[in-house]
Structure formats: C-alpha cells, structure tokens
C-alpha cells in the first residue's frame, strides 16, 4: 500500500515526463485497458483522468460538430484544446486497433492488427522507448470505467473531481498541461472567450476577437470561422477556405467551403469540397445530400441522382428526396419523380417545401411545372393557377388529364372550430372572463383534401368597433388535413359586452363575451401563483379559482388559514406591536387572530404587482413578510 506522501512524491518525480503528452480513453469494449497500457508505457497521465477533464470544445455539439473525437480532426482539436505536446487516442475496429497521434503540426494515423504492432509504431515515432514491451494494466476494464466516472477515486482522481468543482488543481500540477488546468480554473483560452462573448450577446467584441483567432492554431481558426458564420459576417467565406487549407483533416472545414461555394453559385468548387469532406466522413448523409445538389449545379445530372440516392439510403431526408424528385422530373421520369416527391412530402416537417418550390420555379420542363403545382397543393399553398398554367402550356401532355382532375377535385371547405377559451394556453376553459385578462382561443382547423395556409387571427369588437387584433402565422408539415392550435391572445380592457372573432382564411367563429370586473383570484392564477396554507395545501382548486365565486373563496379561505396559524406566532418579533404603517400598534399575532378582508385584499393586490412576494411561499408567511416590510 502506498502512503499519501509517497504517492505525491512519485507523481512529482514523474511530473515532467507526464506533462509532455496525453493518452485519451480509447473507443471500444476494452478501450480503457488499452489506453491505460499505452499511457503507462509512455509515462503519460492515466486516461481515466482525461475522461474526467477533457473539455468540450467551445461551440455547440463540441466534437460531434467536427465529425467526432475519434477521428483525425478530433485528435488534433483535443491536442489544441488541452495544450499537450501530443495526444494519442484510438478505437477498436473488427480485430484491429486504429491510433491517431496528434501534434501541433498535424496528425498521423495507423491501423494495426495487434496492440503490440501499434506499440512498435510509437517507438518509430520517438514516443515509446526502443525495444520496450507494451505494459499490462493491473486494473480491469470495469474498475477503470468506474474510476473514469469518479467512483471510488484515488487521491489523483479526487484532485480531478476537486478541480471540476473549483477547489484547485491539487496533485495535478505538473502532471497535466497548464493550459488544461487553467481552463478548468476559469481562465478561458481565446477560442472559448469568443463563444462566451457570443453567449453574452457581445457581437462586436466576439468579431474583434475572431479576427485575432484567424492567426492562431487549428482550434482558434475553427472558432474564428464559426463566429463569423454565426454572426453572418461576410468574412466567413474566406475564413472557411483558409481553415480548410490549414486544417485539411477537418470535414467541417470542407463543408463550410461548400456552403461558401453554394452562396457564390460555384457548383464545381462545392462538389470538390464535398468530395474531400466525404473522404473524411464517408457515411455522413448530409454531405451526400449536398453533393447531389453540387453535381446538379455543375451540370452532372446522373451523378446528382446517384449522390441523392446514396443520401436517402444513409438517412431518409426531405431535402434529398426533393432534390431527387427535381432531377428525375428534369429527365422526364414521372413515376420516379412522383415517388421522390411523395416521400419528401411525408418527411418534410414544414421547413423544406418552399425551397423545393423555388427550385422548380427555375425550370421550364413540363414535369417541373406539373410538380410545382403538385407540391404546392399538398403543402396547402394555392395550386389551381399552377395547374391551369400547365394545361395552357402543355394541353396535350400525358399528365394533362391528371391536372384536370386536380382542378375538378371537390374541396370539402375549410372549417374552424373554437374548442375553448383559456387564460393560459393549454389550460382549462376560463369563461366568463374579467377585465384585464388575456383570452387565448384554442381552435381546431380542418381542410379537405389539405389544410390551406393562412394567418390565424384573433379580433375583439365592442359595439361593432374593433378594439384589438392579433395575428399568428401557422407552420405545419405538408399533407396536413387538420390541426389544433392556440391563437394569439387579445386582452379585455374593461367590463362590458364584446364579440370575439377567430378567423382563418374564409373560415370564422364569432363568440359573445360578457366581461366582468377584475378578479384577484384569476389574476394570481394567470401569473402561475398558487395560494397554499402552512401545510402546503392549495386553498382553491383551479376550477374554484376560475369560477364565479373565485375571489370570495380566496379571501375567505385565506382568512381561515391566517386564523389557524395565529397560535404559532409566539416569537417576540411577531408579538411586538408594529411601530408604523397602516397596522401600527397591532402585532402580527393580533392581525393573524383577527384578519380583515381589507388587509387580505390589499395583500393580494400587492402580490399582483410584485409576484415574488408569494412565489414559493405559503400565504401565511408571505403575508407576515409583507406586514413586516410595511412597518
């Protein structure tokens, strides 16, 4: 057994050797044991430490955005993020071991049949001692995984846990790179600072820092490009091309170059960039989807179709199917185009059909015009004019009869049904309403064969005069026939008689409203405040609160709760008369014993103005605090 003092001395002696490089946990069923073996042989810190302390990259989705940690790009970014002289990581692949060795100037990759062959490779790289053997770790995979998750930590791993909690670096000084330790101590490197500025809305400061990051390492160059892109600064295109040249292992860099090329209408450059990205991530559906479009822009329709077909094999997605439909429509393949468009419409969540229609607008082929009408109809957009234009242009086309059938198709009309009127979206029916309250109409819309697209409007009239109007554009997927939605709220300004109109296209519903005076109970309810006694029990149910007797019940039950709590008010602070304020001369105990409706009503009126008075408190303590603060 090693005493704590000998344990510390051991790592201090090895500190200089340990700090030169890092071995990260390997990916695979025996990943921790393999990584531990290599770390021991290379005199590197335990990989289980890095499982606790490897930082996420500063941007959203971290390593996943760049293709994953266990890649050439991931290894190089990990080296830059940690500040290590070198970083080694690996993954097990069908009886082989793939290693990535990243240094500041690049990354090397090797695939080996056995770990011992990988060890020989590291000897050739000057990292492992010549003629040495790969060590055998003493701990099992399960024990190492537990340690990597902070279970039963030894002193070194406890230091890592302490560092993450902000309690200093402890035994890790000299063992891990200083850059990594400083990052966990809150001293962010420039790339992380840039995204911190972004999160704080400091646009100009983030852009200024990004300018300097362009001259930095691969992590900083990547951060600079992403900042420019996020803030839509035109320099992102140049930054993307610079990043790809400096960091060719990064598929994201080539993806960004392709987007720059698309924006500039350079199909061939986009194609070449995506082919490079696919060499790094060959099974990424998005790259195949975009490659199909790049081939289309470059005038290579056969390859555009092949790339799009590969994209939907990897992951069925609306964009690739819309592209496939367009390409086959250009070829005159009606059945192929229809099958692709039908699948795209089913997959579209309401975000892609407008782009697909725009792409069709730019074509003059007969099928392009027909499918422009076909897609528009199923997306709920006006299509009759498009079908008519197709018939006028191509009256003898084989699809003319299909276009006529579409024009003669009986439409079941548009139906709008108001399901309820609520104070809070998705909540209970709240009629009758009171002055000052917002009315949220919840409606069901039905269209046949598909729901058309309009704005959902809420209008409020008093004596025939429009006093309030709100509009809400609706988003829904193609092929939608019915939809339940909450319309925008209108606020009732004062007591009286009103007519509420909910309108969607030519469909409408008119609802008379008799509006009463303001209600304290309902105002509290709308604010999300719950009135509870000392035991935590609700004084009113939601139905009672919204009912015609809500205010009366609120005041009466609050009086009861205060009287029940009065015997508990025995401290000197609560039995001493209040020196000033509206209740001067009376103690809190007296006020609880004999509470008045006026006092309780005044309290709730104050809560409406300052909801934090009640918040998570019970009504007794909230009222007592209010009385004490009023003195």
TrEMBL record:
Residue windows of the TPR repeats: 251-284, 318-351
Sorted UniProt keywords: TPR repeat
InterPro entries the record matches: TPR-like_helical_dom_sf, TPR_rpt
PROSITE patterns in alphabetical order: TPR (PS50005)
A Pfam family annotated for this UniProt entry: TPR_8
UniProt keyword annotation of rRNA processing present: no
Protein's name in the database: Tetratricopeptide repeat protein
């Amino acid at each position: 057994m090693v005493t704590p003092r000998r344990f510390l001395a051991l790592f201090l002696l090895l500190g200089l050797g340990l700090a030169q490089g890092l071995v990260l946990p390997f990916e695979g069923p025996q990943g921790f044991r393999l990584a531990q073996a290599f770390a021991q042989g290379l005199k590197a810190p335990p990989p289980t430490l890095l499982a606790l302390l490897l930082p996420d990259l500063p941007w959203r989705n971290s390593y996943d955005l760049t293709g994953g940690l266990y890649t050439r790009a991931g290894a190089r970014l990990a080296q830059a993020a940690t500040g290590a002289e070198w970083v080694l990581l690996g993954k097990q692949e069908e009886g082989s071991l793939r290693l990535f060795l990243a240094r500041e100037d690049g990354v090397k990759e090797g695939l080996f049949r056995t770990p011992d062959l990988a060890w020989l490779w590291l000897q050739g790289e000057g990292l492992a001692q010549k003629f040495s053997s790969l060590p055998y770790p003493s701990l099992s995979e399960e024990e190492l995984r537990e340690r990597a998750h902070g279970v039963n930590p030894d002193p070194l791993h406890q230091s890592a846990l302490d560092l993450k909690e902000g309690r200093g670096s402890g035994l890790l000084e000299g063992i891990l790179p200083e850059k990594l330790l400083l990052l966990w101590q809150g001293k962010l490197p420039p790339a992380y600072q840039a995204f911190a500025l972004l999160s704080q809305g400091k646009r100009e400061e983030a852009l200024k820092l990004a300018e300097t990051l362009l001259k930095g390492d691969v992590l900083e160059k990547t951060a600079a490009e992403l900042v420019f892109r996020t803030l839509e600064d035109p320099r992102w295109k140049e930054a993307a091309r610079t990043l790809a040249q400096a960091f060719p292992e990064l598929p994201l860099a080539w993806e960004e170059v392709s987007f720059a090329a698309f924006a500039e209408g350079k199909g061939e450059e986009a194609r070449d960039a995506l082919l490079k990205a696919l060499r790094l991530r060959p099974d990424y559906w998005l790259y195949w989807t975009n490659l199909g479009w790049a081939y289309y822009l470059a005038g290579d329709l056969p390859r555009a179709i092949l790339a799009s077909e590969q994209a939907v094999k990897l992951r069925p997605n609306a964009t690739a199917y819309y592209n496939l439909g367009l390409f086959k429509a250009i070829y005159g393949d009606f059945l192929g185009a229809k099958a692709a468009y039908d699948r795209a419409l089913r997959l579209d969540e309401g975000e892609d059909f407008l782009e697909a229609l725009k792409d069709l607008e730019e074509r003059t082929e007969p099928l392009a015009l027909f499918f422009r009408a076909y897609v528009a109809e199923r997306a709920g957009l006006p299509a009759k004019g498009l079908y008519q234009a197709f018939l006028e242009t191509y009256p003898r086309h084989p699809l003319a009869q299909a276009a006529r059938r579409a024009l003669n198709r009986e439409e079941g009309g548009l139906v709008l049904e108001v399901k309820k009127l609520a104070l809070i979206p998705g909540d209970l029916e709240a009629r009758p309403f009171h002055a000052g309250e917002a009315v949220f109409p919840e409606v069901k819309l039905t269209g046949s064969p598909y729901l058309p697209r309009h704005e959902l409007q809420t209008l409020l009239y008093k004596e025939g005069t429009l006093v309030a109007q709100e509009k809400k554009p609706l988003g829904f997927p193609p092929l939608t026939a019915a939809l339940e939605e909450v319309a925008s709220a209108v606020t009732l300004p004062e007591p009286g008689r009103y007519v509420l109109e909910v309108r969607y296209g030519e469909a409408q519903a008119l609802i008379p409203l008799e509006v009463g005076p303001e209600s304290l109970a309902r105002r509290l309810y709308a604010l999300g405040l719950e009135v509870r006694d000392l035991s935590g029990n609700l004084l009113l149910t939601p139905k009672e609160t919204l009912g015609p007797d809500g205010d009366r019940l609120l005041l009466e039950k609050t009086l009861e709760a205060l009287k029940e709590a009065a015997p508990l008010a025995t401290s000197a602070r609560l039995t001493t008369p209040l020196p000033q304020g509206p209740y001067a001369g009376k103690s809190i105990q007296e006020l609880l014993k004999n509470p008045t409706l006026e006092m309780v009503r005044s309290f709730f009126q104050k809560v409406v103005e300052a909801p934090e008075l009640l918040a998570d408190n019970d009504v007794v303590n909230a009222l007592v605090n209010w009385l004490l603060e009023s003195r």
